[in-house]
Amino acid sequence: MKVLAIIPAYNEEESISPTVEELLAARTGCDYLVVNDGSSDATERICRERGYRFVSHPTNLGLTGGFQTGVKYALAHGYDAVAQFDADGQHVPGFLPRLIEEMEATGADIVIGSRFVTEKKPHSARMIGSRLISAIIRLTTGQRINDPTSGLRLYDRPMMEEFARRFDFGPEPDSLAYLMRRGARVSEVQVSMRERQAGESYLSAAKSISYMARICTSVLLAQWFR
């Protein structure tokens, strides 16, 4: 299976080099593409100076636009699947082969690198939101997803085509629920993740609450009108 790891990056000058170097050192068998999403820091310069494979947006389009650019690149270059991979150092590249093996063994359309297949969710405010999204996805699809907010996911070619042709279709839990209702087969593989290695997350406490509310509303209501 020919797989491209898509690494959307916005102002990740402190972490982009360690992320790419670790991915290369892990010898996962995956190619990669950094999508510099209109960064105002040195992210693009670092990619150019170190010879990384990258494309740049002139302005910041957000995760949806960054991921879509990577998917279109993958489709144009004959890839069978794409992996969504964070630029901030949270994702461990050594787990990518597990996701690929799961897709090849089960025929799943989407494989999620989940923190909670064999591990229990901790009791925290953030995990309350994750539990709520899991419950709503199960209510609307009849299927259980243990880690709906995981950003480590593998998508096969039919799923790539969905993301490439829709301007409002981001790699988020609500799109996952939509695809599941349309017959997408989803599997989860146990992984571990780290805290952000450098920089600051765009999700403050207030934005995290807003994000959870938006996702829940989308899964319950908006997705039915797509």
TrEMBL record:
It holds the Pfam family Glycos_transf_2. It comes from the Bacteria. Residues 6-162 form the Glycosyltransferase 2-like domain. InterPro entries: Glyco_trans_2-like (IPR001173), Glycosyltransferase_2 (IPR050256), Nucleotide-diphossugar_trans (IPR029044). Belongs to the glycosyltransferase 2 family. This is Glycosyltransferase family 2 protein. It comes from Thermophilibacter provencensis.
